[in-house]
């Protein structure tokens, strides 16, 4: 089991949006040194020779430069607390004193020399502090390493926040995990990416805001290197995951309908985040906005999972899609339409070609699917291409999935949504891999217990390697031998897989053959048509195949309505190519109980192995080219699956 850092918490804070005018680098003004002269701020080594060096001395606005005409700080959606005075550890001796941080003039500043220089704001009395807003001098040219601390007596300070500023001239808001009672707020600056000076144009303290903020409709500020995606959405909670280009402690404003008056804040600074939204209600639509390191995302919406009393659900599924290429884009163009997306998306493996690296996840999955994943919760399963890199570790590091198996591993898990119990299996680890958190015996034992525990009337299992397929690989006899008997024993209704790059639906199967007339069988669907290059069928259509298609990319649409389950294979042009209808007798509504499917209740995902104090490697990674050819999505030899092609 991995020991992995969680960046989750919630509080009741509101966002602060601040804007400032741009400030250009200013020429130095000679000044007499103080008694203990500070070391002058060094010029930027990357500044062209035609530019004046950046120094921390008073500036003289150049003629016609609108950005240095004494523009004021504009604050919106924030209850700014009145500051009685400001003090500092020192200044540059040339007029850049602490009071300049409160004069509402962006062309002046406080500048203090040396790492550990601090600016303290005195409110005059103890109040509830929710955070601070800072406009950094030349903030678009250097990142400041800083901490925020609070104090009641002005002597003993307690750290409340630590981060690096974003590269932006806009004032940035930094929110505490929770409100704090304090009279003093101190900003301590431990140098910046250019030199060891502290330079702040304006600083404010914010209290709790009781106003209702207006949701922004578009993204603003520095672009997030990874836009938000929804993970482990349940009936009462959800995770909003994303990445930032600098280390900070972000927060998410959210609420039911169009309201965003509630706030959830990450508990630690870092670059990779999964902020938990709690206190949600089943089957409701929620709006959310992220504020992180100077970035603000436009409002997006999602639906929480419905409870067992709900008899309907609509979702989509597809596999073998993570190419970043042209066929994937055709499917996403259709699937991205609100009327088609469904309540959530299942993926059937091969989420990131060709080797499941972090860079491939970014370029071939999260970037092309960004618009969809901001509003549609994602429940994935791992494919063989994910296992090429470190036995699927990047897959685990990119998703935050229910950790509800005994190993607390996200390789396989289950969840409930409305009338359906879903199980995501890992069809890689039981065969040919040695893993402490996943083995054949562990997964089979857990599966039997999980399926036996649920009382939801419908059961759907999804994973990568097909039990029945006439495609290039054929049927995985190992998966059939080990898992099909459990599916049959515990009444699984539908099995969804990928791996072969085509669409295929079997007739209802039992054991190693088509179910006899009058007996119950399970239809097995291969939906490996999500965007990878399609492959030819090596032989004629077997007698156990009801329908197959290797000429159209597309996805599976699934709707459950009471005792009827309907699947539709929809190609990228919107044409329904295949339909399956299953019927059964189910109760009109399942009453709420406290012990329904205990193994699939809302759980806290483990998240990635991640050090929030060390800059992650993904910040320097370059985009990878699309996996848009047959060669780029080719499979390495598969261990121990015993693939077979069966005609009868």
TrEMBL record:
Domain of life: Bacteria
Keywords: Glycoprotein, Hydrolase, Signal
Pfam families reported in the protein's UniProt record: F5_F8_type_C (PF00754), Metallophos (PF00149), Metallophos_C (PF14008)
PROSITE patterns the UniProt entry points to: FA58C_3, PROKAR_LIPOPROTEIN
Biased composition annotated in UniProt, kind: Low complexity: 38-58
Gene3D superfamilies: 3.60.21.10, Galactose-binding domain-like
Compositionally biased spans, kind Polar residues: 593-607
Region of interest: Disordered: 25-72, 593-648
Ranges where the F5/8 type C domain occurs: 59-208
Sequence ranges of Pro residues compositional bias: 25-37
Signal peptide boundaries: 1-31
UniProt name for this protein: Serine/threonine protein phosphatase
């Amino acid at each position: 089991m991995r020991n992995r850092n969680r960046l989750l918490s919630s509080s009741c804070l509101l966002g602060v949006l601040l804007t400032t005018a741009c400030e250009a680098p200013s020429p130095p003004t000679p000044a007499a040194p103080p008694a203990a002269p500070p070391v002058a701020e060094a010029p930027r080594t990357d500044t062209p020779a035609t530019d004046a060096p950046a120094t921390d001395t008073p500036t003289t606005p150049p003629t016609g430069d609108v950005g240095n005409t004494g523009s004021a700080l504009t604050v919106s959606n924030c209850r700014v607390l009145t500051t009685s005075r400001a003090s500092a550890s020192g200044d540059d001796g040339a007029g850049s004193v602490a009071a300049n941080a409160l004069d509402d003039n962006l062309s002046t500043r406080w500048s203090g020399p040396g790492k550990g220089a601090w600016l303290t704001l005195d409110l005059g009395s103890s109040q509830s502090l929710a955070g601070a807003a800072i406009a950094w001098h030349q903030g678009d040219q250097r990142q400041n390493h800083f901490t925020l601390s609070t104090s009641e007596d002005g002597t003993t300070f307690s750290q409340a926040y630590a981060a690096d500023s974003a590269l932006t001239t806009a004032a940035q808001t930094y929110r505490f995990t929770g409100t704090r009672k304090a009279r003093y707020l101190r900003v301590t600056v431990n140098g910046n990416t250019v030199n060891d000076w502290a330079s702040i144009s304006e600083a404010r303290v914010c209290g709790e805001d009781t106003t209702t903020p207006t949701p922004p409709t578009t993204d603003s500020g520095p672009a997030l290197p990874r836009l938000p995606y929804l993970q482990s959405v349940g009936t009462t909670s959800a995770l909003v995951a994303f990445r930032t280009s600098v280390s900070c402690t972000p927060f998410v404003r959210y609420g039911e309908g169009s309201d965003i008056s509630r706030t959830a804040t990450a508990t630690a600074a870092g670059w990779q985040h999964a902020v938990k939204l709690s206190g949600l209600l089943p089957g409701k639509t929620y709006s959310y906005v992220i504020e992180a390191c100077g970035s603000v995302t436009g409002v997006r919406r999602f639906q929480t999972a419905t409870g067992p009393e709900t008899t309907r659900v609509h979702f989509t599924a597809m596999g073998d899609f993570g190419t970043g290429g042209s066929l994937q884009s055709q499917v996403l163009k259709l699937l991205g339409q609100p009327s088609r997306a469904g309540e959530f998306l299942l993926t059937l493996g091969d989420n990131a070609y060709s080797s499941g690296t972090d860079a491939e996840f970014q370029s071939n999955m999260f970037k092309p699917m960004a618009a969809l994943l901001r509003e549609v919760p994602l429940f994935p399963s791992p494919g063989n291409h994910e296992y090429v890199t470190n036995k699927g570790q990047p897959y685990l590091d990119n998703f935050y999935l229910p950790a509800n198996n005994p190993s607390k591993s996200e390789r396989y898990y289950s969840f409930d949504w409305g009338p359906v119990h879903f199980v995501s299996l890992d069809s890689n680890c039981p065969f040919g891999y040695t893993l402490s958190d996943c083995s054949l015996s562990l997964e089979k034992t857990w599966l039997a217990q999980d399926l036996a525990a649920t009382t939801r009337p419908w059961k759907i299992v999804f994973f990568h390697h097909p039990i029945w397929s006439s495609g290039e690989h054929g049927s995985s006899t190992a998966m059939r031998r080990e898992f099909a008997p459990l599916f049959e024993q515990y009444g699984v209704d539908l099995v969804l897989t990928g791996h072969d790059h085509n669409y295929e639906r079997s007739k209802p199967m039992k054991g190693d053959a088509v179910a006899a007339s009058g007996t119950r069988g399970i239809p097995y669907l291969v939906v490996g048509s999500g965007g990878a290059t399609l492959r030819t069928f090596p032989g004629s259509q077997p007698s156990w195949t009801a329908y197959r298609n290797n000429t159209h990319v597309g996805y599976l649409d699934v709707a459950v309505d009471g005792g009827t389950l309907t699947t539709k294979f929809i190609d990228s042009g919107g044409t329904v190519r295949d339909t399956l209808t299953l019927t059964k007798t189910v109760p009109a509504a399942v009453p709420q109980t406290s012990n329904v499917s205990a193994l699939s209740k809302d759980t806290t995902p483990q998240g990635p192995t991640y050090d929030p104090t060390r800059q992650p490697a993904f910040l320097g990674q370059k985009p990878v080219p699309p996996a848009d050819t047959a060669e780029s999505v080719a499979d390495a030899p598969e261990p121990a699956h015993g693939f077979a092609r069966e005609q009868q």
